[in-house]
Write a structure and sequence with these properties.
Order of helices and strands: HEEHEEEEHEHEHEEHEHEHEHHE
Bound molecules: glutamic acid
Radius of gyration: 22 Å
Oligomer: single chain
Low-confidence stretches: 1-59
Number of strands: 14
Strand order of the largest sheet: 1-11-10-12-9-13
Structural class: alpha/beta
Mean pLDDT: 86
């Protein structure tokens, strides 16, 4: 689909971009941006003359560009929403194996000496670079570290590969990563292509809007613009449940926050856990409306790597029992409320 520029509604006041926490992937810090902008202006000879845009309604400010690869899906689009096939309980996984287990995938990873994990390196609360240490931290990152701890006795033996939501399945199918730990919902459709661990977090899809915008529920999104990402359950649910909303898809959830702040969309819809991270980055936003769907997260593993699925389920069992899961939830996800009990595992064998 061709990228489309979404017209900004003139009635909406301009909004200053705020960024707390790490900048979204692919963006530069304000000082660096400023330096680049000044250099560009000097090279263009603009520093000595009036800005060519100074007669625009916004003074010297140009229309903010949309993120690269932003794509619009109009309301009531004829593009079909894929059906989720029925596979019984998709969250039922394989029974755990102990830490001494062996198998083709485990042997390969142990021989390599590190675990290759795909995740989003700009996802607040789940996986982002700590600005002080430069280390990737967050709930997903720490779950991955527990698997490395059981494999190598060392949680640091991990190589991270940065993955967008859209790339998760392909990275597993092409075996570019040993596992994906990236807010990935277990679904019957995905189980046709990849395998999953037991559930390590239960999220719910909701809506994030600017405070005072009048958007309080899904119903209010009819005729409005909603940001989401392709190949996510978030996109499928919003299109199915509110077909009268027009959609803007962008590469990352951090991009969704930027287009919301720039008033190029009216709302963002995805899991409450991800939205809580965006809200923490911009206190002018709020989660609104009830849950649209249940989003049980599993660790994605290439289909066929059953030994690894069982091993990972062993780690998840350990961290549910030894208090690690509750400690990590309290550390990263307290914005979602008091720490619940860890999700009970379901097995199919
Ligand atoms: N849980 C949703 C999914 O797996 C959205 C999460 C994300 O894009 O990271 O599609």
């Amino acid at each position: 689909m061709r990228p489309v520029r979404i017209p900004r509604r003139p009635a909406v006041p301009r909004y200053r971009i705020r960024r707390a926490g790490p900048p979204p992937r692919g963006t530069r810090s304000w000082p660096v941006r400023g330096l680049i902008a000044c250099t560009a202006l000097l090279l263009a000879g603009c520093a000595t003359g009036p800005s060519p845009r100074s007669d625009t309604p916004h003074g010297d400010y140009a229309e903010p560009p949309l993120p690269a690869q932003a794509t619009a899906i109009p309301a009531d689009s004829s593009v079909p929403v894929p059906d989720d096939p029925d596979c019984g309980d998709p969250t039922a996984s394989l029974r755990p194996a102990g830490p001494a287990a062996t198998g083709p995938a485990l042997n390969r990873i142990r021989a390599r000496g590190r675990l290759v994990v795909g995740l989003d390196t700009g996802s607040n609360l789940f996986s982002f670079r700590d600005p002080n240490s430069g280390v990737i931290v967050g709930f997903d990152a720490d779950i991955a570290r527990e698997v490395a701890r059981d494999l190598f006795g060392d949680p640091d033996r991990i190589e991270y590969r940065s993955l967008g939501s859209e790339e998760r399945e392909a990275a597993l199918i092409d075996r570019r990563v040993d596992m994906v730990v990236k807010t990935m919902t277990v679904t019957c459709a995905r189980l046709e292509r990849v395998a999953f661990s037991t559930v390590y977090l239960k999220a719910h899809q909701r809506v994030l809007a600017i405070k005072g915008s009048g958007i309080e529920s899904l119903k209010d999104l009819a005729g409005k613009r909603v940001c989401t990402i392709r190949r996510t359950t978030s996109l499928e649910h919003i299109r199915r449940i509110q077909p009268e909303a027009s959609i803007l898809t962008v590469p990352t959830w951090a991009d969704c926050l930027v287009v919301l702040q720039q008033r190029q969309v009216d709302a963002v819809s995805t899991d409450d856990s991800i939205l809580a991270g965006l809200k923490a980055q911009d206190p002018h936003t709020d989660l609104v409306g009830p849950s649209i769907s249940e989003e049980p997260y599993g660790i994605g593993i290439p289909k066929g790597d059953e030994d690894l699925v069982r091993f990972v389920n062993g780690t998840l069992d350990r961290i549910r029992a030894d208090g690690t899961w509750s400690r990590l939830y309290g550390q990263w996800l307290s914005a979602l409320g008091p720490t619940p009990p860890p999700p009970a595992p379901a097995y199919r064998d």
